[in-house]
């Protein structure tokens, strides 16, 4: 388990405001206590830190969880379009077996959902963004395998941002799920 320290935060290139706030309020606390304290202050900082502690599989689980929190927004508006749900399912397959086939399928599902997002962008803000988060979850499977892990952060952050328009509880649920993943790892 990665221990959150000043050095760790510098290596992860934490923003200066977040770093200073952490030094003043979180240093010396356990990882879980730090994240809980950050979450009370700034969801985006807590989310950023969670993603940097999790391993690849956990990042994908985190992104999928976040997307699943808001997918119903899209499905209520467009009940006959299952592409966002398929993108989430493709990402889930990568959790079970991170093969090249599953990764490529997740990428293709994400690309299909990106088209959904573009098509509905002007029609319904919340529904189109819910589809975008399903896309982000599927793309996390591809992105984390080939590039960086920022897609997991983006999926969780953006899903919560979308959900804030509907219900503030999503931020708390997403952070709590991230904490649960960390606790399993510790």
Short description:
This protein has 186 residues and is mainly alpha-helical.
Task: Record the SSE blueprint.
Elements lengths: L5 H6 L4 H10 L5 H11 L1 H11 L2 H22 L5 H14 L3 H21 L4 H22 L3 H15 L4 H17 L1
Describe the structure.
The chain has a domain of 111 residues. 80% of the residues lie in helices and 0% in strands. It is built from ten helices and no strands. It is elongated and about 50 Å long. The relative contact order is 0.17.
Q: What level of helicity do the residues show?
A: over 70%
What share of the residues does DSSP label as strand, in percent? under 5%
Measured on Cα atoms, how large is the radius of gyration? 16 Å
Derived from helix and strand composition plus strand pairing, the structural class reads mainly alpha
**What distance lies between the first and last C-alpha atoms, to the nearest angstrom?**
6 Å
Question: Helix segment count?
Answer: 10
Shape: elongated
Number of strands: 0
* Uncertain stretches: 145-149
Calculate the mean pLDDT score and round it. 75
In sequence order, what are the helices and strands, one letter per element?
A: HHHHHHHHHH
Describe the sheet with the most strands. none
